[in-house]
Design goal:
globular, alpha+beta, two-stranded antiparallel ribbon, 386 residues, Peroxisomal Thiolase, Chain A, domain 1, 15 strands
Length: 386
């Protein structure tokens, strides 16, 4: 689809507690009952993740925290605990609500064009917890938005969900040129970390983190020069195989992620066809390596893991500079599920030399195996050339 909706005032928020990857690795490797093979998988997964630090809402996971009644981690024994799903979801309800409001408020305060009275729609995204009334309701009440604001929540879709949220916001703007849509994603993946012998669970534990992001989508003519991204086209693709290789289910001891070692290969095999509808000229004929990379300057690839980024870079012939925003987001923040691609887009706008008119290709992967992609254009940025 094409249109003139623009994503503006993209803001990110992270919890205070920092997890250092080497320290978390040692905790997971030291859990009682792990086989020698599982310990080797823990070490390889954490050391090869491309992650230095992650954030969590769970202060007790810090190695310096003093917790009288530990729920998730007993620092005195070094044991990872296993609270029930209800306990984990109670933490989600409290902590996610706070981050949803903080991110939404940050996006609104960062935009000189709009205030609370202008917001017509709120779209929230999360797959790491549930409660009702939900986060979109909390945002309306906390920010003093009109009761008539249209509210939508995209739940349990996984890592790609911010892309359909942006697409829905763009469609709202196409239907109503005066629409101003607040899009907010919050994921608290660390609530579901757990020790296991299963390689898929170990890989997931080495990657996932907590974070929040929000932005404003509108087609209204802008008077204020705020850097943003015009949302030009969207496309959804489902890999012929992969339904069982990336999945997200609810268990008695938290939500359970399946992230198999086959995912990077599946993505590599399907990514060109997944992108083809967005690039009818560049991919009109047989695939020519690097043709898309030459035509599109910036790439916001969801950093599901280092091996995924390696496979995407190799398959599309992208440069190290084009993968830099995704790799840096992964290194500093880890995989924050649906919020992560918004962190990458913010980095492109603010730190990667984006200039007015540059094209941006965004892509996120999730259960299915589903690939959500978008073509965007930088508006109002004057970054230095890289």
């Amino acid at each position: 689809m094409s249109g003139s909706a623009v994503l503006r005032s993209l803001q990110t928020v992270v919890p205070d507690t920092i997890l250092h990857q080497n320290e978390v690795r040692d905790v997971f490797a030291a859990q009682p009952g792990l086989s020698r093979l599982a310990r080797r998988i823990v070490t390889a997964s954490f050391d090869g993740s491309g992650i230095d630090t992650r954030r969590t809402v769970l202060g007790e996971l810090s190695l310096t925290a003093e917790t009288e009644e530990p729920v998730f981690f007993d620092r005195t024994t070094g044991a990872l605990l296993s609270p029930g799903t209800g306990v984990r979801n109670d933490v989600y309800t409290r902590e996610a609500g706070r981050l949803f409001v903080a991110a939404a408020r940050a996006a609104l305060e960062a935009d000189p064009e709009f205030d609370a009275a202008d917001i017509t729609h709120v779209v929230t995204v999360s797959c790491t917890g549930f409660h009702a009334p939900g986060p979109e309701y909390a945002i309306v009440r906390a920010l003093g938005l009109s009761d008539a604001v249209q509210r939508y929540h995209l739940g349990f879709m996984g890592c790609y969900a911010s892309m359909p949220a942006l697409r829905a916001a763009s469609q709202f703007c196409a239907a109503d040129p005066d629409a101003v849509v607040l899009v907010v994603s919050v994921e608290l993946c660390t609530l579901h970390l757990r020790t296991s012998e299963d390689p898929d669970v170990i890989i997931a534990s080495s990657l996932f983190a907590d974070g929040a992001a929000a932005g404003i989508v509108t087609a209204r003519p802008a008077r204020s020069a705020v850097p943003g991204l015009r949302l030009d086209r969207f496309h959804t693709a489902i890999a012929p195989e992969g339904e069982k290789d990336m999945a997200w289910t609810i268990g008695d001891r938290g939500f359970e992620m399946v992230l198999s070692t086959a995912v990077p290969q599946i993505i590599g095999e399907t990514i060109v066809e997944a992108l083809r509808p967005l690039y009818p000229d560049e991919l009109a004929g047989p695939y020519d390596e690097g043709r898309i990379g030459e035509a599109v300057r910036h790439w916001a690839i969801h950093p599901g893991g280092r091996s995924i980024l390696d496979r995407v870079q190799d398959r599309l012939g992208l440069s190290d500079a084009q993968l830099h925003p995704a790799r840096e987001t992964l290194r500093v923040h880890g995989n924050m599920s649906s919020a992560t691609v918004l962190f990458v887009l913010q980095r492109i706008l603010q730190e990667e030399g984006a200039r007015d008119g540059d094209r941006v290709s965004a892509m996120a992967f999730g259960p299915g195996l589903t690939a959500e992609s978008a073509l965007m254009t930088v508006i109002g940025a004057e970054g230095d050339a890289r």
